[in-house]
Fold each of these.
Amino acid sequence: MPHHEDVNKKSPVRLLVVDDEPHIADLVATVARYEGWNAVTAGTGEEALRQAAGFSPDIVVLDLMLPDVDGFTVLDGLRASGAMVPVVFLTAKDATADRIAGLTRGGDDYLVKPFSVEELMARLRAVLRRSNGPAWKRSVLEVGDLTMDEDTREVKRAGVPVSLTPTEFELLRYLMRRSPAVLTKAQILDHVWEYDFGGRSNVVELVVSHLRRKIDDGHEPLIHTVRGVGYVVRRATG
Amino acid sequence: MPHHEDVNKKSPVRLLVVDDEPHIADLVATVARYEGWNAVTAGTGEEALRQAAGFSPDIVVLDLMLPDVDGFTVLDGLRASGAMVPVVFLTAKDATADRIAGLTRGGDDYLVKPFSVEELMARLRAVLRRSNGPAWKRSVLEVGDLTMDEDTREVKRAGVPVSLTPTEFELLRYLMRRSPAVLTKAQILDHVWEYDFGGRSNVVELVVSHLRRKIDDGHEPLIHTVRGVGYVVRRATG
DNA sequence: CGGTTCCATGACGACCCTGTCACTGACCCG
DNA sequence: CGGGTCAGTGACAGGGTCGTCATGGAACCG
């Protein structure tokens, strides 16, 4: 069973996704539900405010480009109702600088489209962790003697720091989070790469190859390939 | 985990923010809450006095330019209730000299709009520290052999003083406060620069470059760039 | 009102990351 | 045992990011 750090909480995280592209909103909601969260979607600013009132989300994903009203108007509406709900904004890649200025003040964060699903979930978890008071504890993933600190982006094998590129980090995080489950290459592509990535070559194998050299070299291998299926990170089964 | 010097206190700091621009009031409240403080806002002088009575804040952020009553009237109201609550004033850039005269008597302080949020938080922390009796201890940030005294603005590397410009100091303070977390350039821009700064060029890289020359030159590097993510100040992990 | 310091902007070069291709090797099945 | 499929790795090129310099302007100070 995948690693769900939220299963022990009394109530699941409540997420509101606001995006006028149903494709995107559903994608995010689906992934969140798979993590055990409670997710609803809205396609317009008006709908978003209605949903927020009835659903009282713990966190919001808000596309700044909405058909009816400006995303900032929705934000004001959310904030006007008193609750200081944290927000992760979505912006187009070509968004002007003044539109994304100030988005990370407070505890909020933002992401440019197209994003990778794992990246978005990681940001949501980080924002949530921080919004739960100042004494938030770091999130450290651990498999065998391999550790990953998601906040400092520090990865160590047997205590020795390893430096990873962004893609390598993302892929390894996904494998570690789901460890000891086996993930197919399709899953990895869908979660780690941007959602509009069309490449169907051997990118995954390539990055895994690099990861092995950096992480498994000279140690007991933790990255295993399951032929015909995909990859998994775990200690040799005993 | 970021440096939160308040987590061990019995009760969190109680902050009242008085500003007629909701954007500003919310901004300050959000950042304060992110630091673990308890923050409420007021948009008018009347509301401010009401809030102060019920909330009994430890410290107040007060815009001198209010729609209904003069900021000084609010101040008198606050002080009339006996408690000697410290205040950090906000003034417009074009405020006349006589209006800001005497504002820093007592333990108070003031800031001109637009300010940077880190600057405001630093002043609030400083005023709070001093208001807790005369024997306030200095706040010294420390990362490896790099130290920063926030009150004297003294920065030393391996005991040797380094002189920094205001922007350099502010950026370094932000990185040191959050060390060993990695901060994105967007976060740095949002926190260190004034809140209406629209700059989209390589200011951050430039200032970091200057900081490196002044701080890391000839030493073990403490400022690291995390490609594709941002910057971090920390000792090489071991 | 001159000089100096500090800061923002643009340009440019260097480096790193990434995806594709090509080739080799490993594994599976007949 | 041999062919075919799948995985691993090296090489390469395009694109993006980062660091630095040079320039001009604003603020500050004497």
Note: Residues 202, 205-206, 208-209, 212, 225, 227-228 of chain B lie near DNA strand D (CB under 10 Å from a C1').
Amino acid sequence: MKATKRRNILAAAEKLFERFGPAKTGVDEIAAAAGVAKGTLYNYFGSKEGIVRELITDKIGLFEKALKAGLDDISDPLEKLKSAAVERFRFLHRSPYIAAIILHREGDATSRELASSFESRQRGIVARIMDEARRRGAIRRSDSAGITDGIIYLLKGLELSLKDRLDSARIEDIEAEITRLITLFFSGAGKAAGKRNL
Amino acid sequence: MKATKRRNILAAAEKLFERFGPAKTGVDEIAAAAGVAKGTLYNYFGSKEGIVRELITDKIGLFEKALKAGLDDISDPLEKLKSAAVERFRFLHRSPYIAAIILHREGDATSRELASSFESRQRGIVARIMDEARRRGAIRRSDSAGITDGIIYLLKGLELSLKDRLDSARIEDIEAEITRLITLFFSGAGKAAGKRNL
Amino acid sequence: MKATKRRNILAAAEKLFERFGPAKTGVDEIAAAAGVAKGTLYNYFGSKEGIVRELITDKIGLFEKALKAGLDDISDPLEKLKSAAVERFRFLHRSPYIAAIILHREGDATSRELASSFESRQRGIVARIMDEARRRGAIRRSDSAGITDGIIYLLKGLELSLKDRLDSARIEDIEAEITRLITLFFSGAGKAAGKRNL
Amino acid sequence: MKATKRRNILAAAEKLFERFGPAKTGVDEIAAAAGVAKGTLYNYFGSKEGIVRELITDKIGLFEKALKAGLDDISDPLEKLKSAAVERFRFLHRSPYIAAIILHREGDATSRELASSFESRQRGIVARIMDEARRRGAIRRSDSAGITDGIIYLLKGLELSLKDRLDSARIEDIEAEITRLITLFFSGAGKAAGKRNL
DNA sequence: CATGAATGAGCGTTCATTCAT
DNA sequence: CATGAATGAACGCTCATTCAT
């Protein structure tokens, strides 16, 4: 099993997935694009889903590594959060088929597990940032778990709406909106609300 | 064309859709489950997509009617918002295949249009509540559009994560989380953030 | 069984057949156009083919009556032949779906029988004209049966090519061509041929 | 893709087409008769239409090659014409489903194109023979295009009537009739006609 | 290991006919 | 007689997977 061939197949698959999505990409197309026989795909990956799985694992791995490295250079928690959110957005925007699996839970059981563990690690990253914020006294209340969830939901919802948004807005605008919403979430939208209800 | 049979078919289709989703449910299965011939489905609905469309239209119609009725009984904007969010959650939780279409934009062009118009009406409802909140002085800043978007994203993200959450949490807990997050979004999570960035 | 209803159905079917042909016309469409229920068609005609059959029988009957009347006014055999040929062409051109059955032997066994008997009567008409021509001394040889067949084949071949011809030629041109070919067939194309081979 | 299997499939298809015609022959039937899976047909031919196309193309190719070779051995134009006509008849008689497409313009666009180009080449062959006849002084008038058309129509009409004729006549009789009619067409049937009308 | 020909269950749709009302 | 809802076999085609070479 030459590692080169493996990489060729994955590269070919990725290109096609990005354009058409895994569902609309046939195994024949991947094989043709990679310059190997269809059977070879099965020797290496066992199934079409296997290709998807491996591709996602790889890309997620790279993204998470880069994300962590990027966060190390930032000290302010809110800035860390904004940066992480924008990077996450960029990653999912770059690989829409991964976004589809992460957000929509498409694919087989293993893919969904992958997505699930990705989200759990993402939550961990946000949670750690929140902890730091609390230690620094930047967060006034103890409900950091709720805030963490809120951040994650906010991002997911925003990422979900990407296709719609991209029709009318530029990427920079969307990134600006992400930081704005996170800031808004931190600062609160209402005056009296907090006093009345919490 | 008896209305009873129409309902039987829709009921059978709904049951299957809820378990497998429209994509994985064959026309033969619907026909078998409804106890009619395949051709009968086409006499009533014209196409598989026609069944999906009618089912979604019906359910959305009922939900929106109930939602509006429920909101009329509430005067406080934040309470209105919480109620709307919980009702919306319940609706999508009850009909996961509608959630799939609404959230994921799955299905054909018609389904996506249905989803798109649903979301636009949903946004309208939230926006109207925000307007009222602003008129009452409950919202301190003028960016009510941004807040509206934030609310929608929050809900979508939360609804997206339903399947995962339902493994570990009870529905009541999730509903409580929804109201908590909306309140949090109103009151703000951080102390210094607002001052520093806005 | 009101005769009016019968006629309505046939009229509706004819209109549709002329535009789309029997194969592309559905029983539903005929019923709708005739303003009756689908089942009624079956009460009257037994099957879709039954409608086709009856329609053809009617039209052929009318055509043959008119044809014979027209021929009575002509005395010269060659002129009779030309007239018959042109009338036949006009008839089949006016009712392309009948042409399809007459020429292509489409449809069920009964329709094919209808077509077969039509052709046999047509041959009879031409044969009678040829007999008269021989009695008048207008035909030099005794092979009048062969000539009759030749005429029929010539017409059929020409009618077959109608669709193609109609793209490039006007109807008047085609009618002129018919008389020209019949004349040609009578007068002979070659000089030496006849002497050498017969 | 083994050529043997390709031939097997074509042979199976041909047998069925000859009995029922391409329209009434299902893909499943061809697959069953060929002893292969349905998918295999699509691997080899892409579509049902592809099978029809290939079959027709092959047969027409073989026929035209043989036809040309046969004509090279004959020098007299009238004899050439007779031979071509008889060969053409034999070909269409051997492959009735091809006759159906050639004569009736049945089938999809591609089949009709095939038929159209076949007829155009056939007309070319006849036209070339007529040219030669004129050069040799065997044809008395200049309307060789009209004569060519007449020949083609004659043949088509005759071939159309094959099914009927075969009930009552032997093939040899029909072939004799073809040569008789062509000779007749050359020599002319009437005495006075030519003088009166041309 | 590599190949790619072979597989076949599954898909949504059509429409002439039937038959209970 | 009239109705039209119900029928279901038949259609051409797809594509992830298998397996003999």
Note: The mean pLDDT of chain D is 88.
Amino acid sequence: MGTTPLPRIFYARDTLEVAKDLLGKVLVRSAGDRKLAGRIVEVEAYKGLSDPASHAYRGENGRARLMFGEVGRCYVYFVYGNHYCVNVVAKSSRAKAGAVLLRALEPLTGVEVMRRNRGTEDKFRLTSGPGRLTRAMEIDLKLYGTDLTKLGSLYIGDGGLRPEEVIVTAARVGVTRAGQRPWRFLIAGSEYVSVSPGQGAVSKTQLPLKAGLPQAKSRRYRQ
DNA sequence: GGGACGATGTCCT
DNA sequence: GGACATCGTCCCC
């Protein structure tokens, strides 16, 4: 699992569909002789020109230009003077721009390096948040524009949901410019998500999530 | 050219 | 629950 990069056609579909299908896939960071990897458990979709919360909302300018280009590349940006966030460009052929923000991972490979990078031993907090996961995985602006469909310093490998896993749909986090659009998707019951739907930050004792939350159909991407 | 603020995380109370 | 770190962008002088 996670050794073959997803092909470009995976990303050439509706942004919301790609977002949901990215759950369970594996983000891989190769840095020198090190390999860091984590399973994607939480994402958010940003729909370009029709989405006031998207950096692409104001048009094809500056850093956002990338979201109007080739799908399957990564859009990295810097926020709050402290953190990097990583997105994947994904959109149907009709859409002008679109991207999926990676919000949380389940650490798989290189956990000790991630602990060092994050300065904490708590495995549930190493990669449970967009800023945390980039810190753990050593992702910054140098990787802006990296082609994630090629075996390289950063790519997304195959994988999928386990049969019992269900996708939960929720409002996006930290978004102030668009009304509450239910464009956040996470794996129900994962102990590695950032913010549980309708609650504050996730702590170990609040988990696992159980049924009763609004849900989207669980589905698998066919290789 | 400058000021406000953000797709956040951490520490403190 | 709230302050604040800290800087790239955007938007409006």
Note: Residues 55, 58, 61-63, 77-82, 200 of chain A lie near DNA strand C (CB under 10 Å from a C1').
Amino acid sequence: MTISHKIISNISVDCVIFGFDFEKLNVLLVERELVDEKSGRILIKDFTLTGYHIFEDEDLDKAAYRILKDLTGFENIYLEQFTVFGKTDRVSNEKDQIWLTYLNQGFSERILTVGYFSLIDSTKVTLSHNERKIHWFPIDEAHNLEWAFDHKQIFMKALEVLRNKVRTEPIAFELLPERFTLTQLQKLYEAIYGTPIDKRNFRKKIVQMPFIVALKVKQKGVPHKPAQLFLFSREVFEKTKKERLGFLF
Amino acid sequence: MTISHKIISNISVDCVIFGFDFEKLNVLLVERELVDEKSGRILIKDFTLTGYHIFEDEDLDKAAYRILKDLTGFENIYLEQFTVFGKTDRVSNEKDQIWLTYLNQGFSERILTVGYFSLIDSTKVTLSHNERKIHWFPIDEAHNLEWAFDHKQIFMKALEVLRNKVRTEPIAFELLPERFTLTQLQKLYEAIYGTPIDKRNFRKKIVQMPFIVALKVKQKGVPHKPAQLFLFSREVFEKTKKERLGFLF
DNA sequence: GCAAAAGTGTTACCGGTACACCCATGC
DNA sequence: GCATGGGTGTACCGGTAACACTTTTGC
């Protein structure tokens, strides 16, 4: 299948990309900067999500995967559509209009954007910067940033959906390496919810889940007692699905 | 604010409308029928959700409210966007192409549709049929119907989202009259999940919720012991929100 | 008085929560 | 040997689940 690469001008996809550095939950943002050519003054300096228009003969989901692949080089990334943003004025504030004019898209037609969030194991990814300035920001700091368009709103909705989803589905593992320690998993949940969790109770609950499988391997080269490594088995999870009412945590 | 009424041709909204008749959970569908003018043979006979394109200067949510108002006459209906359907082939099967050709839209550009679900108190609504054949169908039967476009898929996703949402948010009340009995509420939950619930345990749990307020009024004219009427107070719900972790049922 | 649905309490069990100390490794 | 995080068990409490009979009304 070939792709026409002719874009649909009034529909785009924006991805809220979450990563975990074993300490904090982060979101990946792209710096947007516009400098006045004559004066050298900075007209715009803020942050956007990564997004792009969809192509005419491209499924919506495919467009989101394409955007992620362009950025990270990976294909099998957890991705989920969460909301469409369709207010007529979502891009009409002054700063954004200046930007769109600069891109020769100013005051063009209204654009509707579909929000996706994705979870990636940030230990694996080296970002392909290709001339863009991209950075990870802890989600706590993200609230105070200067955002482009309605991207702050999109981000906040993504975070809300993520928090809800993590309560009932085993998706947190997407943010960790394939083999992880229980402490890493615990820190991840703490980072997502922003609240401490009791270590012993956490371990009891996790270990009894049949789809969390203990490996025989342990950590190596750490300056303390090496931790046991675990694996999330989606296969076992799917098999035991009916018996459970939910992935209640 | 005036509305241009110029439609955006590649974006539409489809509403999955749920209602409750005190026995079953139903979905509202519109019959689609195409008869060959010469032979009189029925070419197409199936069911669609209610939907329409959005207008150029109309917020997405507004478009969904407009569609519902046209159908029911009411403005304050519970409505929630749940998913966008954006596969390139979502309307390309033969039957649908015949239909679109008939409407002079055949083989036109790809249409992306935004799914909304809405919950209405069906005791209040008299449907404004304006020449369309519309009917309530129990959700169990809906699976066996002949559906138009990808509307079966949209319906099933809506049902899934509804079931999840009802577990954590107090939205079931939208399907009942303002004053309701506990038995009605219980039947509603049973209808949504398709499973029986223990009466005494159900009542204990419900009555202790501060936002379920008992009225002094009782049913009248029923041929059995009249039931007490209750009310869901959104005000109390919002006030006590922080104290709760969720509307866990 | 009978049919039909409303309303009510107790017990047993399980899962959640709270909490403090010893262990294995690298340097 | 010391610093660092890994790993473990028990007791209490609260919520959930199972279960059967009496009450009030219209006819």
Note: The interface with chain A takes residues 8, 10-11, 54, 56-61, 81, 83-88, 110, 112, 114, 164, 168 of chain B (CB under 8 Å).
